[in-house]
UniProtKB/TrEMBL annotation, chain A:
It is a multi-pass membrane protein. It comes from Vogesella indigofera (Pseudomonas indigofera). This is Formate dehydrogenase subunit gamma. PANTHER family: FORMATE DEHYDROGENASE, CYTOCHROME B556(FDO) SUBUNIT, FORMATE DEHYDROGENASE, NITRATE-INDUCIBLE, CYTOCHROME B556 FDN SUBUNIT. It is found in: Cell membrane. Its main location: membrane. Residues 8-183 form the Cytochrome b561 bacterial/Ni-hydrogenase domain. Pfam families: Ni_hydr_CYTB. Gene3D superfamilies: Transmembrane di-heme cytochromes, Chain C. One of its GO terms (biological process) is respiratory electron transport chain. One of its GO terms (cellular component) is plasma membrane. Keywords: Cell membrane, Electron transport, Heme, Iron, Membrane, Metal-binding, Transmembrane, Transmembrane helix, Transport.
Automatic annotation (TrEMBL), chain B:
One of its GO terms (cellular component) is plasma membrane. It is found in: Cell membrane. NCBIfam families: FDH-beta (TIGR01582). [4Fe-4S] cluster 4 binds at residues 109, 130, 133, 136. It comes from Vogesella indigofera (Pseudomonas indigofera). Binds 4 [4Fe-4S] clusters per subunit. [4Fe-4S] cluster 1 binds at residues 36, 39, 42, 176. [4Fe-4S] cluster 2 binds at residues 46, 157, 160, 172. Transmembrane segments: none annotated. Residues 27-57, 88-120, 121-150 form the 4Fe-4S ferredoxin-type domain. This is Formate dehydrogenase (Quinone-dependent) iron-sulfur subunit. Gene3D superfamilies: 3.30.70.20, Single helix bin. One of its GO terms (molecular function) is 4 iron, 4 sulfur cluster binding. InterPro entries: 4Fe4S_Fe-S-bd, 4Fe4S_Fe_S_CS, FDH_Electron_Transfer_Unit, Formate_DH_bsu_Proteobacteria, Formate_DH_C_sf, Formate_DH_Fe-S_su, Formate_DH_TM.
Amino acid sequence: MKPQLIQRYSAPERINHWIVAVCFILLALSGLAFFYPAFFWLTGVFGTPQLARIIHPFVGVLMFVAFARQFFRYWHHNLLTRDDIQWMKSVKTVMQGHEVGDTGKYNGGQKGMFWMMCACMLVLLVSGIIAWRPYFAIHLPIPLIRIALLAHACAAIALIASIIVHVYAAFWVKGTIRAMVEGVVTHGWAKKHHPRWYREVTGKQK
Amino acid sequence: MALQSLDITRRSASPTASPQARKTIEIAKLIDVSTCIGCKACQVACSEWNDIREEVGHNIGVYDNPTDLSADAWTVMRFAEEESNGKLEWLIRKDGCMHCADPGCLKACPSPGAIIQYSNGIVDFHQENCIGCGYCVSGCPFNVPRISQKDNKAYKCTLCSDRVAVGQEPACVKTCPTGAIQFGSKEDMKQVAATRVTDLKQRGYDNAGLYDPQGVGGTHVMYVLHHADKPEQYSGLPKDPAISTTVQLWKGWLKPLATIGIAAAGLFGFFHYITVGPNRADDEDDSATNVGRNEEDKA
Protein backbone atom coordinates (compact mmCIF):
# COMPACT_ATOMS: atom_id res chain seq x y z
CA MET A 1 0.00 0.00 0.00
CA LYS A 2 1.21 3.48 -0.82
CA PRO A 3 1.89 5.57 2.29
CA GLN A 4 -0.68 8.22 1.44
CA LEU A 5 -3.53 5.70 1.39
CA ILE A 6 -5.60 4.49 4.32
CA GLN A 7 -6.91 0.93 4.60
CA ARG A 8 -10.73 0.96 4.96
CA TYR A 9 -11.74 -2.61 4.15
CA SER A 10 -9.57 -5.74 4.50
CA ALA A 11 -9.55 -8.41 1.80
CA PRO A 12 -11.92 -10.74 3.76
CA GLU A 13 -14.33 -7.83 4.21
CA ARG A 14 -14.26 -7.07 0.50
CA ILE A 15 -14.78 -10.70 -0.49
CA ASN A 16 -17.66 -10.90 1.95
CA HIS A 17 -19.23 -7.76 0.50
CA TRP A 18 -18.97 -8.96 -3.08
CA ILE A 19 -20.45 -12.37 -2.27
CA VAL A 20 -23.48 -10.55 -0.92
CA ALA A 21 -23.51 -8.20 -3.92
CA VAL A 22 -23.38 -10.95 -6.55
CA CYS A 23 -26.05 -12.95 -4.73
CA PHE A 24 -28.18 -9.83 -4.54
CA ILE A 25 -27.95 -9.16 -8.28
CA LEU A 26 -28.91 -12.75 -9.17
CA LEU A 27 -31.75 -12.70 -6.66
CA ALA A 28 -33.03 -9.30 -7.71
CA LEU A 29 -33.09 -10.26 -11.40
CA SER A 30 -34.78 -13.62 -10.87
CA GLY A 31 -37.09 -12.14 -8.24
CA LEU A 32 -38.20 -9.33 -10.55
CA ALA A 33 -38.85 -12.02 -13.15
CA PHE A 34 -41.26 -13.78 -10.79
CA PHE A 35 -42.85 -10.44 -9.86
CA TYR A 36 -43.27 -8.74 -13.25
CA PRO A 37 -44.74 -10.90 -16.05
CA ALA A 38 -43.07 -8.64 -18.63
CA PHE A 39 -39.65 -9.43 -17.11
CA PHE A 40 -40.18 -13.18 -16.82
CA TRP A 41 -37.34 -13.65 -19.31
CA LEU A 42 -34.95 -12.54 -16.56
CA THR A 43 -35.34 -16.04 -15.12
CA GLY A 44 -32.71 -16.72 -17.80
CA VAL A 45 -30.00 -15.65 -15.35
CA PHE A 46 -30.33 -19.16 -13.94
CA GLY A 47 -30.78 -20.91 -17.28
CA THR A 48 -34.48 -21.80 -17.35
CA PRO A 49 -37.57 -20.60 -15.45
CA GLN A 50 -37.77 -23.90 -13.58
CA LEU A 51 -34.09 -23.72 -12.59
CA ALA A 52 -34.56 -20.13 -11.47
CA ARG A 53 -37.39 -21.22 -9.16
CA ILE A 54 -35.22 -23.99 -7.74
CA ILE A 55 -31.96 -22.02 -7.35
CA HIS A 56 -33.33 -18.64 -6.18
CA PRO A 57 -34.00 -19.72 -2.57
CA PHE A 58 -30.60 -21.40 -2.17
CA VAL A 59 -28.83 -18.25 -3.35
CA GLY A 60 -31.07 -16.36 -0.95
CA VAL A 61 -29.83 -18.41 1.99
CA LEU A 62 -26.23 -17.86 0.88
CA MET A 63 -26.85 -14.11 0.71
CA PHE A 64 -28.38 -14.12 4.18
CA VAL A 65 -25.50 -16.08 5.69
CA ALA A 66 -22.91 -13.81 4.04
CA PHE A 67 -24.86 -10.74 5.12
CA ALA A 68 -25.10 -12.08 8.68
CA ARG A 69 -21.27 -12.18 8.72
CA GLN A 70 -21.31 -8.51 7.67
CA PHE A 71 -23.87 -7.73 10.34
CA PHE A 72 -21.55 -9.00 13.04
CA ARG A 73 -18.62 -7.11 11.51
CA TYR A 74 -20.38 -3.76 11.35
CA TRP A 75 -23.34 -3.49 13.72
CA HIS A 76 -21.38 -1.71 16.44
CA HIS A 77 -20.20 0.89 13.90
CA ASN A 78 -23.82 1.58 12.99
CA LEU A 79 -25.42 2.50 16.30
CA LEU A 80 -27.27 5.75 15.78
CA THR A 81 -26.10 8.85 17.67
CA ARG A 82 -27.47 12.36 17.95
CA ASP A 83 -25.01 13.43 15.23
CA ASP A 84 -26.56 10.90 12.86
CA ILE A 85 -30.03 12.30 13.44
CA GLN A 86 -28.58 15.75 12.69
CA TRP A 87 -27.07 14.32 9.49
CA MET A 88 -30.42 12.84 8.43
CA LYS A 89 -32.18 16.15 9.07
CA SER A 90 -29.58 17.96 6.95
CA VAL A 91 -29.77 15.47 4.10
CA LYS A 92 -30.55 18.29 1.64
CA THR A 93 -27.24 20.00 2.44
CA VAL A 94 -25.48 16.66 2.13
CA MET A 95 -26.93 16.15 -1.32
CA GLN A 96 -25.47 19.46 -2.44
CA GLY A 97 -22.09 17.90 -1.75
CA HIS A 98 -21.46 19.52 1.64
CA GLU A 99 -20.44 17.60 4.72
CA VAL A 100 -22.51 17.74 7.88
CA GLY A 101 -21.17 17.00 11.37
CA ASP A 102 -18.08 15.21 12.64
CA THR A 103 -18.76 11.91 10.90
CA GLY A 104 -17.17 8.70 12.17
CA LYS A 105 -16.71 5.49 10.18
CA TYR A 106 -20.25 5.77 8.84
CA ASN A 107 -22.56 8.75 8.39
CA GLY A 108 -26.25 8.85 9.28
CA GLY A 109 -27.29 7.82 5.80
CA GLN A 110 -25.00 4.81 5.76
CA LYS A 111 -26.24 3.74 9.18
CA GLY A 112 -29.85 4.10 8.09
CA MET A 113 -29.04 2.03 5.02
CA PHE A 114 -27.39 -0.64 7.20
CA TRP A 115 -30.44 -1.10 9.39
CA MET A 116 -32.76 -0.95 6.37
CA MET A 117 -30.79 -3.78 4.78
CA CYS A 118 -30.87 -5.78 8.01
CA ALA A 119 -34.65 -5.44 8.26
CA CYS A 120 -35.18 -6.39 4.61
CA MET A 121 -32.82 -9.38 4.84
CA LEU A 122 -34.63 -10.71 7.89
CA VAL A 123 -38.08 -10.36 6.34
CA LEU A 124 -36.83 -11.90 3.10
CA LEU A 125 -35.33 -14.90 4.89
CA VAL A 126 -38.35 -15.67 7.05
CA SER A 127 -40.94 -15.10 4.31
CA GLY A 128 -38.78 -16.88 1.75
CA ILE A 129 -38.54 -19.99 3.90
CA ILE A 130 -42.31 -19.99 4.47
CA ALA A 131 -42.98 -19.87 0.71
CA TRP A 132 -40.16 -22.30 -0.21
CA ARG A 133 -41.34 -25.27 -2.23
CA PRO A 134 -41.16 -28.16 -2.05
CA TYR A 135 -39.50 -28.14 1.39
CA PHE A 136 -41.40 -25.84 3.74
CA ALA A 137 -44.55 -24.43 2.14
CA ILE A 138 -46.26 -27.84 1.95
CA HIS A 139 -46.32 -28.03 5.76
CA LEU A 140 -47.70 -24.53 6.29
CA PRO A 141 -51.20 -23.03 6.07
CA ILE A 142 -52.09 -21.21 2.84
CA PRO A 143 -53.08 -17.87 4.48
CA LEU A 144 -49.62 -17.71 6.07
CA ILE A 145 -47.96 -18.39 2.71
CA ARG A 146 -50.02 -15.59 1.13
CA ILE A 147 -48.79 -13.11 3.74
CA ALA A 148 -45.24 -14.39 3.28
CA LEU A 149 -45.40 -13.88 -0.49
CA LEU A 150 -46.66 -10.32 -0.05
CA ALA A 151 -44.05 -9.55 2.61
CA HIS A 152 -41.31 -11.11 0.47
CA ALA A 153 -42.23 -8.92 -2.51
CA CYS A 154 -42.47 -5.75 -0.37
CA ALA A 155 -39.14 -6.37 1.34
CA ALA A 156 -37.48 -7.21 -1.97
CA ILE A 157 -38.70 -4.00 -3.60
CA ALA A 158 -37.60 -1.95 -0.59
CA LEU A 159 -34.19 -3.61 -0.72
CA ILE A 160 -33.80 -3.11 -4.48
CA ALA A 161 -34.65 0.59 -4.17
CA SER A 162 -32.26 0.88 -1.20
CA ILE A 163 -29.45 -0.84 -3.06
CA ILE A 164 -29.91 1.54 -6.00
CA VAL A 165 -29.39 4.39 -3.53
CA HIS A 166 -26.44 2.52 -1.94
CA VAL A 167 -24.75 1.98 -5.31
CA TYR A 168 -25.45 5.51 -6.44
CA ALA A 169 -24.03 6.98 -3.24
CA ALA A 170 -20.84 4.98 -3.75
CA PHE A 171 -20.64 6.17 -7.35
CA TRP A 172 -21.43 9.79 -6.45
CA VAL A 173 -18.87 10.13 -3.65
CA LYS A 174 -15.70 9.66 -5.69
CA GLY A 175 -13.11 7.37 -4.13
CA THR A 176 -15.71 5.24 -2.36
CA ILE A 177 -15.85 2.34 -4.80
CA ARG A 178 -12.09 2.04 -4.45
CA ALA A 179 -12.61 1.38 -0.73
CA MET A 180 -14.63 -1.75 -1.52
CA VAL A 181 -12.55 -2.84 -4.55
CA GLU A 182 -8.94 -2.10 -3.55
CA GLY A 183 -9.69 -1.64 0.13
CA VAL A 184 -8.10 1.81 0.41
CA VAL A 185 -9.10 5.46 0.48
CA THR A 186 -7.10 8.68 0.19
CA HIS A 187 -6.40 10.97 3.13
CA GLY A 188 -8.48 13.64 1.45
CA TRP A 189 -11.43 11.30 1.13
CA ALA A 190 -11.25 10.25 4.76
CA LYS A 191 -10.74 13.80 6.03
CA LYS A 192 -13.65 15.15 4.00
CA HIS A 193 -16.24 12.44 4.42
CA HIS A 194 -15.34 10.72 7.70
CA PRO A 195 -13.26 13.19 9.75
CA ARG A 196 -13.71 11.53 13.12
CA TRP A 197 -12.82 8.11 11.66
CA TYR A 198 -9.81 9.74 9.96
CA ARG A 199 -8.53 11.01 13.31
CA GLU A 200 -9.13 7.63 14.88
CA VAL A 201 -7.17 5.65 12.31
CA THR A 202 -4.33 8.12 11.82
CA GLY A 203 -4.09 9.42 15.38
CA LYS A 204 -3.89 12.93 13.96
CA GLN A 205 -5.68 15.85 15.54
CA LYS A 206 -6.39 17.63 12.29
CA MET B 1 -54.33 -29.06 -24.65
CA ALA B 2 -52.15 -26.36 -26.10
CA LEU B 3 -53.56 -26.96 -29.58
CA GLN B 4 -56.73 -25.04 -28.76
CA SER B 5 -54.68 -21.85 -28.68
CA LEU B 6 -57.21 -19.73 -30.56
CA ASP B 7 -59.83 -20.42 -27.93
CA ILE B 8 -57.61 -19.18 -25.11
CA THR B 9 -58.96 -15.89 -23.78
CA ARG B 10 -56.57 -15.45 -20.88
CA ARG B 11 -53.02 -16.60 -20.18
CA SER B 12 -51.17 -16.31 -16.89
CA ALA B 13 -48.41 -13.67 -16.67
CA SER B 14 -49.22 -12.28 -20.11
CA PRO B 15 -49.74 -8.52 -20.08
CA THR B 16 -51.18 -8.27 -23.59
CA ALA B 17 -54.47 -9.71 -24.85
CA SER B 18 -54.90 -13.23 -26.17
CA PRO B 19 -56.76 -13.81 -29.46
CA GLN B 20 -60.32 -12.70 -28.87
CA ALA B 21 -61.99 -13.25 -32.23
CA ARG B 22 -63.39 -16.74 -31.70
CA LYS B 23 -66.26 -16.96 -29.28
CA THR B 24 -67.30 -20.34 -28.03
CA ILE B 25 -70.27 -21.16 -25.85
CA GLU B 26 -69.67 -20.81 -22.14
CA ILE B 27 -70.02 -24.26 -20.64
CA ALA B 28 -70.63 -25.52 -17.14
CA LYS B 29 -70.76 -28.70 -15.12
CA LEU B 30 -73.68 -28.91 -12.74
CA ILE B 31 -73.34 -31.13 -9.68
CA ASP B 32 -76.63 -31.85 -7.98
CA VAL B 33 -75.55 -32.72 -4.46
CA SER B 34 -79.08 -33.81 -3.57
CA THR B 35 -79.01 -36.58 -6.19
CA CYS B 36 -75.49 -37.82 -5.47
CA ILE B 37 -75.24 -41.24 -3.82
CA GLY B 38 -71.49 -41.07 -3.15
CA CYS B 39 -70.58 -44.05 -5.32
CA LYS B 40 -67.29 -42.46 -6.44
CA ALA B 41 -67.77 -43.56 -10.06
CA CYS B 42 -66.75 -40.01 -11.02
CA GLN B 43 -63.44 -40.42 -9.14
CA VAL B 44 -62.77 -43.65 -10.99
CA ALA B 45 -63.73 -42.17 -14.36
CA CYS B 46 -61.44 -39.21 -13.73
CA SER B 47 -58.59 -41.50 -12.81
CA GLU B 48 -59.23 -43.69 -15.87
CA TRP B 49 -59.58 -40.96 -18.45
CA ASN B 50 -56.66 -38.88 -17.21
CA ASP B 51 -54.38 -41.86 -16.47
CA ILE B 52 -53.72 -40.81 -12.90
CA ARG B 53 -53.58 -43.26 -10.01
CA GLU B 54 -53.46 -42.03 -6.45
CA GLU B 55 -51.81 -44.46 -4.05
CA VAL B 56 -54.25 -46.55 -2.05
CA GLY B 57 -54.38 -44.86 1.34
CA HIS B 58 -55.72 -45.81 4.76
CA ASN B 59 -59.27 -45.87 6.02
CA ILE B 60 -59.67 -42.98 8.42
CA GLY B 61 -63.11 -43.94 9.69
CA VAL B 62 -65.12 -42.20 6.99
CA TYR B 63 -65.79 -42.93 3.36
CA ASP B 64 -63.41 -40.24 2.07
CA ASN B 65 -60.77 -42.00 -0.01
CA PRO B 66 -58.46 -40.54 -1.15
CA THR B 67 -58.83 -38.20 1.81
CA ASP B 68 -57.78 -35.13 -0.14
CA LEU B 69 -57.16 -33.82 -3.63
CA SER B 70 -53.67 -34.49 -4.93
CA ALA B 71 -51.61 -34.29 -8.08
CA ASP B 72 -52.98 -37.79 -8.81
CA ALA B 73 -56.55 -37.25 -7.57
CA TRP B 74 -58.24 -34.32 -9.31
CA THR B 75 -61.66 -34.97 -7.83
CA VAL B 76 -62.65 -36.50 -4.49
CA MET B 77 -65.97 -37.17 -2.81
CA ARG B 78 -66.23 -35.49 0.57
CA PHE B 79 -68.69 -36.99 3.05
CA ALA B 80 -70.02 -34.73 5.80
CA GLU B 81 -72.39 -35.79 8.57
CA GLU B 82 -74.47 -32.78 9.58
CA GLU B 83 -77.56 -32.31 11.70
CA SER B 84 -80.40 -30.10 10.63
CA ASN B 85 -83.91 -29.96 12.14
CA GLY B 86 -82.96 -32.79 14.47
CA LYS B 87 -82.19 -35.11 11.58
CA LEU B 88 -78.86 -36.50 10.50
CA GLU B 89 -77.94 -35.54 6.97
CA TRP B 90 -75.21 -37.13 4.95
CA LEU B 91 -73.95 -34.37 2.69
CA ILE B 92 -71.77 -35.67 -0.08
CA ARG B 93 -69.92 -33.25 -2.29
CA LYS B 94 -67.73 -33.97 -5.28
CA ASP B 95 -64.81 -31.60 -4.74
CA GLY B 96 -62.46 -30.34 -7.44
CA CYS B 97 -61.62 -27.27 -9.48
CA MET B 98 -64.53 -24.83 -9.79
CA HIS B 99 -63.22 -23.24 -13.02
CA CYS B 100 -63.80 -19.68 -11.81
CA ALA B 101 -64.58 -16.93 -14.29
CA ASP B 102 -62.01 -14.85 -12.37
CA PRO B 103 -59.44 -17.51 -11.43
CA GLY B 104 -57.15 -16.73 -8.50
CA CYS B 105 -54.63 -19.33 -9.68
CA LEU B 106 -54.26 -17.59 -13.04
CA LYS B 107 -53.93 -14.20 -11.39
CA ALA B 108 -51.18 -15.44 -9.07
CA CYS B 109 -49.20 -17.50 -11.62
CA PRO B 110 -45.88 -15.88 -12.61
CA SER B 111 -45.14 -18.12 -15.60
CA PRO B 112 -46.52 -17.04 -18.99
CA GLY B 113 -48.99 -19.58 -20.30
CA ALA B 114 -48.73 -22.04 -17.41
CA ILE B 115 -52.38 -21.36 -16.59
CA ILE B 116 -54.87 -20.52 -19.32
CA GLN B 117 -58.57 -19.87 -19.55
CA TYR B 118 -60.49 -21.00 -22.61
CA SER B 119 -63.31 -18.92 -24.00
CA ASN B 120 -65.68 -21.71 -22.93
CA GLY B 121 -64.70 -20.99 -19.33
CA ILE B 122 -62.39 -23.92 -18.61
CA VAL B 123 -59.29 -23.03 -16.59
CA ASP B 124 -56.43 -25.34 -17.50
CA PHE B 125 -52.85 -25.85 -16.34
CA HIS B 126 -50.15 -26.28 -18.97
CA GLN B 127 -47.60 -28.20 -16.96
CA GLU B 128 -44.82 -27.74 -19.51
CA ASN B 129 -44.72 -24.06 -18.50
CA CYS B 130 -45.19 -24.66 -14.78
CA ILE B 131 -42.18 -23.75 -12.63
CA GLY B 132 -43.50 -25.30 -9.41
CA CYS B 133 -43.57 -22.11 -7.34
CA GLY B 134 -46.99 -22.88 -5.86
CA TYR B 135 -48.36 -19.37 -6.36
CA CYS B 136 -51.54 -20.92 -7.83
CA VAL B 137 -52.07 -22.74 -4.53
CA SER B 138 -52.00 -19.37 -2.75
CA GLY B 139 -54.20 -17.74 -5.36
CA CYS B 140 -57.01 -20.31 -5.28
CA PRO B 141 -59.97 -19.47 -3.01
CA PHE B 142 -61.07 -23.15 -3.02
CA ASN B 143 -57.74 -24.83 -2.10
CA VAL B 144 -57.69 -26.94 -5.24
CA PRO B 145 -54.30 -26.96 -7.04
CA ARG B 146 -51.74 -29.50 -5.85
CA ILE B 147 -48.01 -29.59 -6.58
CA SER B 148 -46.77 -33.05 -7.48
CA GLN B 149 -44.01 -34.40 -5.27
CA LYS B 150 -42.65 -36.27 -8.29
CA ASP B 151 -42.17 -33.48 -10.81
CA ASN B 152 -42.93 -30.23 -8.89
CA LYS B 153 -45.69 -29.28 -11.31
CA ALA B 154 -49.18 -28.10 -10.40
CA TYR B 155 -52.17 -30.30 -11.23
CA LYS B 156 -55.94 -30.08 -10.94
CA CYS B 157 -59.17 -30.97 -12.75
CA THR B 158 -59.05 -29.94 -16.42
CA LEU B 159 -62.83 -30.28 -16.79
CA CYS B 160 -61.64 -32.79 -19.40
CA SER B 161 -60.71 -29.91 -21.70
CA ASP B 162 -59.47 -32.52 -24.20
CA ARG B 163 -62.89 -34.21 -24.32
CA VAL B 164 -64.84 -30.94 -24.32
CA ALA B 165 -62.71 -29.64 -27.21
CA VAL B 166 -64.03 -32.49 -29.39
CA GLY B 167 -67.62 -32.15 -28.27
CA GLN B 168 -67.70 -34.73 -25.49
CA GLU B 169 -68.76 -34.30 -21.89
CA PRO B 170 -66.20 -34.68 -19.07
CA ALA B 171 -65.49 -38.26 -17.99
CA CYS B 172 -67.13 -37.81 -14.57
CA VAL B 173 -70.34 -36.58 -16.22
CA LYS B 174 -70.43 -39.50 -18.63
CA THR B 175 -70.05 -42.06 -15.88
CA CYS B 176 -72.38 -40.67 -13.19
CA PRO B 177 -75.08 -43.35 -12.69
CA THR B 178 -77.70 -41.09 -11.09
CA GLY B 179 -77.41 -38.10 -13.37
CA ALA B 180 -76.21 -35.99 -10.47
CA ILE B 181 -73.52 -34.51 -12.72
CA GLN B 182 -74.69 -32.80 -15.87
CA PHE B 183 -72.86 -30.86 -18.50
CA GLY B 184 -73.86 -28.29 -21.10
CA SER B 185 -73.90 -24.58 -21.78
CA LYS B 186 -73.82 -22.48 -18.64
CA GLU B 187 -77.23 -21.03 -19.51
CA ASP B 188 -78.78 -24.48 -19.91
CA MET B 189 -77.24 -25.68 -16.66
CA LYS B 190 -78.67 -22.70 -14.81
CA GLN B 191 -82.12 -23.64 -16.14
CA VAL B 192 -81.69 -27.28 -15.14
CA ALA B 193 -80.62 -26.08 -11.70
CA ALA B 194 -83.59 -23.74 -11.39
CA THR B 195 -86.01 -26.62 -12.08
CA ARG B 196 -84.22 -28.78 -9.55
CA VAL B 197 -84.20 -26.03 -6.92
CA THR B 198 -87.94 -25.49 -7.33
CA ASP B 199 -88.43 -29.22 -6.89
CA LEU B 200 -86.32 -29.29 -3.72
CA LYS B 201 -88.15 -26.33 -2.27
CA GLN B 202 -91.46 -28.09 -2.81
CA ARG B 203 -90.07 -31.04 -0.89
CA GLY B 204 -89.29 -28.90 2.13
CA TYR B 205 -85.76 -27.68 1.44
CA ASP B 206 -86.62 -23.99 1.76
CA ASN B 207 -83.02 -22.88 1.36
CA ALA B 208 -82.23 -24.98 -1.69
CA GLY B 209 -80.30 -23.04 -4.29
CA LEU B 210 -77.61 -22.85 -6.93
CA TYR B 211 -73.98 -22.33 -5.92
CA ASP B 212 -72.43 -20.09 -8.58
CA PRO B 213 -70.43 -17.67 -6.39
CA GLN B 214 -70.18 -14.17 -7.86
CA GLY B 215 -67.12 -13.26 -5.77
CA VAL B 216 -65.04 -15.12 -8.35
CA GLY B 217 -67.21 -13.97 -11.25
CA GLY B 218 -69.27 -17.15 -11.18
CA THR B 219 -67.91 -20.65 -11.72
CA HIS B 220 -68.05 -23.23 -14.48
CA VAL B 221 -68.63 -25.98 -11.98
CA MET B 222 -71.84 -25.28 -10.09
CA TYR B 223 -73.61 -27.09 -7.29
CA VAL B 224 -77.28 -27.52 -6.52
CA LEU B 225 -77.32 -27.49 -2.71
CA HIS B 226 -80.28 -28.35 -0.49
CA HIS B 227 -78.83 -25.88 2.05
CA ALA B 228 -77.50 -23.11 -0.16
CA ASP B 229 -77.61 -20.77 2.85
CA LYS B 230 -74.96 -22.90 4.58
CA PRO B 231 -72.47 -24.07 1.96
CA GLU B 232 -69.86 -24.58 4.72
CA GLN B 233 -71.79 -27.68 5.80
CA TYR B 234 -70.65 -29.38 2.62
CA SER B 235 -67.11 -30.09 3.87
CA GLY B 236 -66.16 -26.43 4.00
CA LEU B 237 -67.42 -25.10 0.70
CA PRO B 238 -66.74 -21.35 1.14
CA LYS B 239 -69.79 -19.12 1.48
CA ASP B 240 -68.41 -16.06 -0.32
CA PRO B 241 -65.26 -17.17 -2.09
CA ALA B 242 -63.09 -14.42 -3.53
CA ILE B 243 -59.43 -14.00 -4.36
CA SER B 244 -57.74 -13.21 -1.03
CA THR B 245 -57.04 -9.53 -0.33
CA THR B 246 -53.41 -10.42 0.33
CA VAL B 247 -53.12 -11.90 -3.16
CA GLN B 248 -54.93 -8.88 -4.66
CA LEU B 249 -52.45 -6.52 -2.97
CA TRP B 250 -49.50 -8.61 -4.06
CA LYS B 251 -50.59 -9.10 -7.68
CA GLY B 252 -52.44 -5.80 -8.07
CA TRP B 253 -51.45 -2.75 -6.07
CA LEU B 254 -47.87 -3.64 -5.35
CA LYS B 255 -46.76 -3.78 -8.99
CA PRO B 256 -47.33 -0.10 -9.87
CA LEU B 257 -46.02 0.95 -6.44
CA ALA B 258 -42.88 -1.10 -6.96
CA THR B 259 -42.37 0.34 -10.42
CA ILE B 260 -42.67 3.87 -9.09
CA GLY B 261 -40.36 3.16 -6.15
CA ILE B 262 -37.60 1.50 -8.14
CA ALA B 263 -37.83 3.97 -11.02
CA ALA B 264 -37.78 6.89 -8.56
CA ALA B 265 -34.57 5.61 -6.97
CA GLY B 266 -32.89 5.19 -10.36
CA LEU B 267 -34.09 8.49 -11.84
CA PHE B 268 -33.19 10.37 -8.68
CA GLY B 269 -29.61 9.13 -8.94
CA PHE B 270 -29.36 9.98 -12.61
CA PHE B 271 -30.70 13.52 -12.31
CA HIS B 272 -28.79 14.20 -9.12
CA TYR B 273 -25.55 13.27 -10.84
CA ILE B 274 -26.11 15.35 -13.95
CA THR B 275 -27.22 18.39 -11.94
CA VAL B 276 -25.25 18.42 -8.67
CA GLY B 277 -22.36 16.39 -10.05
CA PRO B 278 -19.86 14.16 -8.29
CA ASN B 279 -18.72 14.65 -4.72
CA ARG B 280 -14.91 14.78 -4.80
CA ALA B 281 -12.39 15.13 -2.01
CA ASP B 282 -9.91 17.93 -2.74
CA ASP B 283 -6.65 16.04 -2.95
CA GLU B 284 -7.78 13.64 -5.61
CA ASP B 285 -5.72 13.44 -8.73
CA ASP B 286 -8.12 15.30 -10.98
CA SER B 287 -6.90 18.82 -10.48
CA ALA B 288 -7.44 19.61 -14.16
CA THR B 289 -11.16 19.01 -13.81
CA ASN B 290 -11.27 20.99 -10.61
CA VAL B 291 -9.54 23.95 -12.25
CA GLY B 292 -12.04 23.85 -15.05
CA ARG B 293 -14.88 23.72 -12.59
CA ASN B 294 -13.54 26.60 -10.54
CA GLU B 295 -13.22 28.74 -13.59
CA GLU B 296 -16.75 27.90 -14.51
CA ASP B 297 -17.85 28.90 -11.06
CA LYS B 298 -16.07 32.23 -11.34
CA ALA B 299 -17.63 32.92 -14.72
